[in-house]
Design brief:
The structure is a single chain. The chain is an alpha/beta fold and 328 residues long. It has two domains: 3-183, Thiamin diphosphate (ThDP)-binding fold, Pyr/PP domains (Rossmann fold); 197-326, Rossmann fold. It contains twelve helices and 14 strands. The chain has helices spanning 6-20, 44-48, 60-72, 91-98, 101-104, 134-137, 151-163, 212-228, 245-255, 271-281, 305-311, 315-326; strands spanning 3-5, 24-28, 53-55, 76-80, 114-119, 144-146, 168-173, 181-183, 197-200, 205-209, 232-236, 239-241, 258-265, 291-295. Helix 7 links the parallel strand 6 (144-146) and strand 7. Helix 1 packs parallel to helix 7 (151-163), helix 8 (212-228) packs across helix 12 and helix 9 (245-255) crosses helix 10. The protein is globular, with a radius of gyration of 19 Å.
């Protein structure tokens, strides 16, 4: 299996789906000849033409609205939002139209669309290019929310998203686009939407994360194992909605201690839902307080690099959180 970056795996998934199904098309800002701001669609317009890799106006509301209409006409749109920060103008279309269409039509209308968006900080993007928005959409029944942390999962999950009969939000940790690498089969495969993955076995405590933080948590777990003898199990949630309660609770039963890590602001971030599941359904397994570690409650990741580093969770900061929890 060749080794590739996260962004290469995402591009490969779209390439394969465009080739597999003529109903699939991509639309978004600069996705054509430029290949997207992060080059996720580089080379695809030359291969499939401008009717299937469609440059859109600078209007996120219309990108998603066009996707909904196309999906209702039995096409399979992949709508790229250039940065997750820009998704807010399309919020009404996603939440009030795409998410509710199947329910309000009593199962007669489906919206098989995928909305891709790079999220998170760490690239010096400042306030409008560094936000984490996943928690907004995880509150909405009718949507699926997926965030990969490995190239293997990125390819397999994106292919599953394109084939899903209802809307999927596919958020990509852009700091990891070229820094996260891994082996990816060139053969056909998918990764199912829903199940979490235990990416490192452990016995002392469990760390739950997704996206870039799942990548960092693996590094932190290796550090505490080597330096402190702490055995940390790492769970990559992968799918945030629907949430895999069985895996979340089974590993908590095994270790009795939980640390939940996400990059988003701590207050009412996605980790609060995992903490609620553990406290309500796993109380009898609890050997220590459930801990959350996330970004500070400031409006967004600052542009200043020192302030950005202060905001962003890192492997070293996660190591400190693991050591604190293990000491209970």
């Amino acid at each position: 299996m060749p080794e590739m970056t996260l962004i290469d795996a995402i591009r490969l998934a779209m390439d394969e789906e465009l080739a597999r199904d003529k109903r699939v098309f991509i639309t978004g800002e600069d996705v054509g000849k430029r290949g997207g701001v992060f080059r996720a669609t580089q080379g695809l317009v030359e291969k499939y033409g401008e009717s299937r890799v469609v440059d859109s106006p600078l209007a996120e509301l219309s990108i998603v609205a066009v996707g909904i209409g196309a999906a209702l006409a039995e096409l399979r749109p992949i709508c790229e939002i250039q940065f997750a920060d820009f998704i807010h103008p399309a919020f009404n279309q996603i939440v009030n139209e795409a998410a509710k269409m199947y329910y309000r039509s009593n199962g007669q209308w489906r919206v098989p669309m995928t909305i891709r968006a790079p999220y998170g900080g760490g690239i010096g993007g400042g306030l409008y290019h560094s936000q984490s928005v996943e928690a907004f959409f995880c509150h909405v029944p009718g949507l699926k929310v997926v965030i990969p942390s490995t190239p293997y999962d990125a390819k397999g999950l994106l292919k599953s998203a394109v084939r899903d009969p209802n809307p999927v939000l596919f958020f990509e940790p852009k700091k990891g686009y070229r820094s996260i690498k891994g082996e990816v089969p060139m053969d056909e495969y998918t990764v199912p939407i829903g199940p979490a993955a235990i990416t490192r076995e452990g016995t002392d405590l469990t760390v739950y994360a997704y996206g870039m933080m799942a990548y960092y948590c693996l590094q932190a777990a290796e550090t505490v194992a080597r330096e402190d003898g702490i055995s940390a199990e790492v769970v990559d949630l992968r799918t945030l909605l629907p949430v895999d309660k069985d895996t979340i609770l089974s590993t908590f039963k095994k270790t009795g201690k939980a640390l939940i890590v996400h990059e988003d602001n701590l207050t009412l971030g996605y980790g609060a839902e995992i903490a609620a599941i553990l406290s309500s359904d796993g109380f009898e397994y609890m050997d220590a307080p459930i801990m959350r570690y996330g970004g500070p409650d400031v409006p967004a990741v600052p542009f200043s690099h020192p302030l950005q580093e202060a905001f962003m969770p890192s492997p070293a900061k996660i190591v400190h959180a693991i050591r604190t929890l293990a000491a209970y």
